[in-house]
Amino acid sequence: MMSIKGFFRGRAAIQPIWIFVIAIFIFFSFMSEYFLSLGNITNILVQTSTIGLIALGMTYVMINGNIDLSVGAILGLAASLAVGLQDYGLTIAIIAALASGMLLGAINGLVVWKTGVNAFIVTLGAMLGIRGLIFLYTGEQSFYSMNFAFSDFGASSIGPFPVLAIIFLLCTLVMHLVLTRTGHGRNTFAVGGNPEASIDAGIRLGRHMMINFIIVGFFAALAGVLLASQMGAATPNLGRDYELWTITAVVLGGTKLTGGYGSIVGTLGGVLAIGILRNGMNLMQVPAFYVLVVLGVILISVLIIDKKLNVPSTKEVRI
Amino acid sequence: MTPVHARTGQRQPIDADPVLKLEGITKRFPGVVALNKVDFDVRPGEVHALLGENGAGKSTLMKVLAGKHQANEGRIILGGEEMAFENPKHAKRAGVVLIHQEQSLVPEMTVAENIFLGSLPKKWGNRVDWRKLREDTNAILETLKCSFQHDDLVGSLSIAKKQMVEIGRALVFTPRVVVFDEPTASLTDHEKPVLYDVIHSLCEQGVGIVYISHRMDEIFHLSHRISVLRDGEYTGTVNTCETHEDEVTRMMIGRSLELDHASKPTDFGENMLELRNLTVKRIFEDVSFNVRKGEIVGMYGLVGAGRSEVAETIFGLRTPVAGEVVLDGEVVNFRSTHDAVAAGIALVPEDRKDQGLILGMNCRDNMTLASLSSVSSGGFMKGSAERSVYDKYHQAMKIKTPSWRQKVGNLSGGNQQKIVIGKWLHTHPKLLILDEPTRGIDVGSKAEIHALVKDLAKSGYAVLVISSEMPEVLGLSNRIIAMYDGRVTAEFDGDSVSEDALVQAITGMGTSAPAAATA
Amino acid sequence: MSSAEQTKTRLLAGNVSKAGVMSFLSAQGILIFFLLGMVVFSFFSEQFLSQSNIMTVVRQASIIGIIAVGVTVVIIGGNLDLSVGSMLSFATVLVVDLHDKIGPTNAILMMFALTLMLGAVNGILIGFMRLNSLIVTLAMLSIIQGLVLIYSGGQNVDIANQDGTWFAFFGRGYVLGIAVPVLLFGLLAILMQIVMSRTGYGRRIFAVGGNPMAAVYSGIRKNWCVFSTYLISAFCVACAALVLGSRVMGSQNNVGQGYELLVLAGIILGGTSLLGGAGSIWKTVIGVLILGFIQNGLLLMGYPYYTQWIVTWVIIILAVWLDLANKRKRLLTTHS
């Protein structure tokens, strides 16, 4: 039995970001004749799928009270492995790529858990180190896929729907259900929202942290494999700055950096907001770099609105 | 000692073997012995009240019992078996549950999820069994007669309802001993009976209850037996029906009740501080009083009456919507604490660790933090000047620390408080405000701080002391301002006030119960 | 008292969350790494410990070092600054582009003024409006990068007459045999070390980073303090841009990309806690030099430049873990 209310469990689901998404959607529909077409909309979904997939995992890590800066590098490594290992067979290459992401996520999680050191520090180190591993593995060369099954996959569609968009939406649904309906999902909230109470309640903090870092590692690797298949190639610098885009999307979606609060529905809104802005401004022939400014301004505006909406309780003093 | 509260309890002690026994529990923290060979037991079906002043060790004892702390010495015997609780969940499974004073709920989760935090019912594949969760939660909510739903977000509930969620948690495993740590501190009068009913029904099921509270009326209403802790030592257990409030108070307070009234200063100068109809939206209204040079004015009231907020407003931390603050004959309107300090106001804040000290800094640096310009020239710190400031207050206040390099986080509460006071004395303030100056510190330091405050007043300081401990207010103040629910309800002469009148003033009159009289 | 007890002391003293990071690399720890690395590298390469090589390393590290000095002040004050990389691009492009248009002096003044303005925007948003510094500077990173691209139209800029300008002094000049970038780095580091450890201002920054609430309750103007740290950070970035612009005499519009992370890596290696209220400039100097020597040593041993990133990662994990061995106690899973 699944009531509507139960589906959007926690009532945190409806994020203000969706109002913004709808607003810019309407705006661009009027501004550009090309915007409102099935082709363009599926195109937006394909374009956002890379950042979107990582953002799913990042939402878990951030609700858990951590952060992962190494996702861009993990994406790059997975892409290189997926293309570079194709001599051993496509399946092996893809499995190796996904496994590398999960392994690196596990290392991040293990260090954060065992040392209790800020995840920012640990994953910043990993971000540098993994990028070094990519360069070491590729010898600073780009790899090109000779396997057409691989490079065709990224452009294939089922009916009018591109496979990448379908994968992204399916993953979104699954991750939403896991977060809202499983023990792991709920405990992720508990650990981020009140670590002390969680420990007292016997929740194993470390285990959930590990799992979440593995999840984000997996999704970063998956995004890398799909991106490589889209391009039919992998470059050593692939995924640079993706951590910043991803964190921007997740924060836009209402997830709090302090942990304990957030939702996949919100994150989807954040990802779409970025995708629609890029796509719409591109259609309006606004140079790409204006998107950077607009996004930054929106991010700061969200913070300011958030501050103004949360009227300080009477207990709080002016400091 | 003015009036006598001869109230005694109605309930006869229950004759049964204890379900839980604590023997010789000792718990040491660095620099402090928090508990020294404490004995305690609970019988099934009884309410055993645990009393003691702030810092006497009640909460520590209960944390040891519930597995949050591990005792250095002593034994915990539950139902005849010796236990060693490694963590709260372990204790909970064995049937010992602590209902927290500070709430340990996750605000973004539902009532059901909070009640079953860490033990959510599962179906295959780690999926939460929402139906079972809902049914189990509803059963618990029904027992507690709660008006809210299982899927309400905890963050949206009132404090009293949150309290009920906490209690609901205790019922998940079949409890044998439930510890209530000041459960009514944040409840209103009409919410309390619900809690009492819950406690009664737990008793009827043979659960042993430990009840920690400052409020005598509750304790005499609810408990079968009363045990008292003082400064980490066990001072005894009495049957509620055979004792009265005076005896319990004596056990609790010991010698410190005999404050020396005679040594109060008597010579006052002109007005140093005057508040005229000061109002801060939704917090306090129409507050007017004055403090003269050389005078100690006590501000007495229950937690939440708006006392600290008045002090914060004087100190520039809150903006009044009406009324004015007059300091030394001038109307002042501080926009920041910096302005207030520059004008000669010092505030020793209520929360030492969050507001008073930088715990990671050493003693000397904390001491000079509010008067940096006096120990520097041209912006550069003068090490020797800093040292001499530190040495001066270190000696004058008998601060016990191995060296000025010691991080203040490693000092005991009393020494920490002395550093905060020293910090403010060096600003040579016109007005010294002390908010709960002796909360949670040992009796020795307490007496020293009391003596110091009197000396300061004698030498001409205007002092405002905020406290919720009646002996402290009575012993120190020349005048007492009573506050209740954001208003000044009465002003008394410090030497001739009766405790009854004082208690009535801070509980909003009309209530006959001398609540918190000796808290 | 056992070390476990000591950990408890710290936990009970209230700095639970800090204990983990606060001293994750004690001063001795850094020096041991430093010396050990030096020995290993000098064993493999004779050039390594030569005077000219050491000067080369310091010179190469000076740009990261100059920025790191400023960011360290921000971090001690309890905040982060991720926008320094973009800001470096901005300042470098600006000073190089304006050099031919309005002359070197005006270009430098203009560059300093505009960079400080960006710092002030950070400072207002974080200091006075009390927004989360991580997100604000992340947003500023994106905004400033966009501004650079809009300004340059996506084109690279350069100085036409590269030999005939005194502007070359900052990146290529020598004073008393010391390269100017090194001199600038050294001077800034010494200046800020003195400011942080010997002045009332420095003491206030430490207090604000250590416990903002208690700082306010002690009459410290917290908002102004936070604001000022971002001005210092922006000033350091402007100095670094001077060196970088003068050295390369031309600039890609993303020249500073990734600098924020290298700077943070240097600071972390130095052992300054990211949680504020602790740390020092000299630790950062050592951290940045370690980064530099790792890079140089690995290059001399014939390894490609990117191996230094892997080594840095491993060192960060080792450092964190070694500190754990000192504590012998998991922080999050005992008392919180």
UniProtKB/TrEMBL annotation, chain A:
Cellular localization per UniProt: Cell inner membrane
CDD domains to which the protein is assigned, alphabetical: TM_PBP1_transp_AraH_like
Topology term for the membrane: Multi-pass membrane protein
Chain segments annotated as transmembrane: 12-32, 44-62, 69-86, 92-113, 120-138, 158-179, 211-232, 244-277, 289-305
Predominant place of localization: membrane
GO cellular component: plasma membrane
Keywords attached to this entry: Cell membrane, Membrane, Transmembrane, Transmembrane helix
MF annotations from Gene Ontology: transmembrane transporter activity
InterPro entries (alphabetical): ABC_transp_permease
Origin superkingdom: Bacteria
Family: Belongs to the binding-protein-dependent transport system permease family. AraH/RbsC subfamily.
Name of the protein this chain belongs to: Ribose transport system permease protein
TrEMBL record, chain B:
A single GO molecular function term of this UniProt record: ATP hydrolysis activity
GO cellular component, one term: plasma membrane
Keywords annotated in UniProt: ATP-binding, Cell membrane, Membrane, Nucleotide-binding, Repeat, Sugar transport, Translocase, Transport
Cellular compartments annotated: Cell membrane
Residues in ABC transporter domain copies: 20-256, 257-510
Membrane topology: Peripheral membrane protein
Main localization (coarse): membrane
Name of the protein: Ribose transport system ATP-binding protein
Lineage per the UniProt record: Bacteria, Pseudomonadati, Pseudomonadota, Gammaproteobacteria, Oceanospirillales
UniProtKB/TrEMBL annotation, chain C:
InterPro entries named among the record's database cross-references: ABC_transp_permease (IPR001851)
The protein's name: Ribose transport system permease protein
Keyword list, A-Z: Cell inner membrane, Cell membrane, Membrane, Transmembrane, Transmembrane helix, Transport
Any GO MF annotation of the entry: transmembrane transporter activity
Gene Ontology CC: plasma membrane
Entry superkingdom: Bacteria
Family: Belongs to the binding-protein-dependent transport system permease family. AraH/RbsC subfamily.
Transmembrane spans: 20-44, 56-78, 107-128, 135-154, 174-194, 226-249, 261-294, 306-324
